[in-house]
């Protein structure tokens, strides 16, 4: 679970397992596997970092965000 902030400053907890896509439109929009969309204050990379840490904590991945970003850059 990751803590995020809606545009109206309300904090909430999201089960990161349901994240399908993260985009910036310019606000960060998270698309969930059930079709819902959530707009948050955090930047795209912050959501990715939080989700990746959650995945590591539950043993789904051992990759870190820096490795992912470096491989995308070149």
Automatic annotation (TrEMBL):
It holds the Pfam family FlbD. InterPro entries: SwrD-like. It comes from the Bacteria. Keywords: Cell projection, Cilium, Flagellum. PANTHER family: SWARMING MOTILITY PROTEIN SWRD. This is Flagellar FlbD family protein. The lineage of its organism: Bacteria, Bacillati, Bacillota, Bacilli, Bacillales.
């Amino acid at each position: 679970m990751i803590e995020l902030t809606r545009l109206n400053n309300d904090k909430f907890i999201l089960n990161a397992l349901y994240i399908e896509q993260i985009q910036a439109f310019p606000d960060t929009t998270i698309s969930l596997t059930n079709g819902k969309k959530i707009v948050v204050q955090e930047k795209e990379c912050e959501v990715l970092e939080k989700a990746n840490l959650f995945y590591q904590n539950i043993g789904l991945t051992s990759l870190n965000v820096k490795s992912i970003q470096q491989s995308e850059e070149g």
